[in-house]
């Protein structure tokens, strides 16, 4: 009896390593079902890839669409876009650092507008992962002040208490208001 039942059971090993133990009469059925499952999985992947590829292409401008529409899979499209546009990040960091180093305040713009510009540069540095300590940012902003602000710069440099960037901006706003008031009253 044991030999008869042994002849009725067959081990089926699939290429991906899955092992089935099944009655002999159903081997063909199981192989057929696994082929159907493979086909369904491949069809689902193809449909998902089609949707993803076209979704990416839809987001591109017309000229870029013409360049990248020849990509056969979403992954190939994504890799080519990543290779092209991800490499420019190093150049962007250098550009932002250059803006930070070259930033100078001028007489033709208001001090507070220029402070906001400088804050935007600091924000861009932070976004790019180039973090500067708070004291460094404060001292850099103080050093960027106009030569007419020499006395105020010296006053800020000699303060013993460490100042945050927001505190410096508040002090600058107060100083701007004081200077405007003095100009209107004719003292300056």
TrEMBL record:
Q: Which domain of life is it from?
A: Eukaryota
This protein is called Zinc finger, CCHC-type
